[in-house]
Amino acid sequence: MQDALLTKEQKKLRDEVRAFVRDDVPRQLILDMDAEKVTYPRQFLEAAASRRLLGLRFPEEYGGRGLGWA
């Protein structure tokens, strides 16, 4: 996706997700998930939750970020 089409908020989220994958997700886990050898393990979900990457559309008062679909 072209950067020019993204809002500042979307760019920030993109950068957060990239950092999460780079720092917290082992490469082999990504390959195994892609090959459907493993589903989302608890460790992955806990790491994503700690960075508030789950429930992005939920209102902030419920732990989400209150984001839209795009």
UniProtKB/TrEMBL annotation:
Acyl-CoA dehydrogenase/oxidase N-terminal domain location is: 7-69
The coiled-coil segments of this chain are: none
Annotated GO MF terms:
flavin adenine dinucleotide binding; oxidoreductase activity, acting on the CH-CH group of donors
Q: Which InterPro entries match?
A: AcylCoA_DH/ox_N, AcylCoA_DH/ox_N_sf, AcylCoA_DH/oxidase_NM_dom_sf
- Its name, as the record gives it, is Acyl-CoA dehydrogenase/oxidase N-terminal domain-containing protein
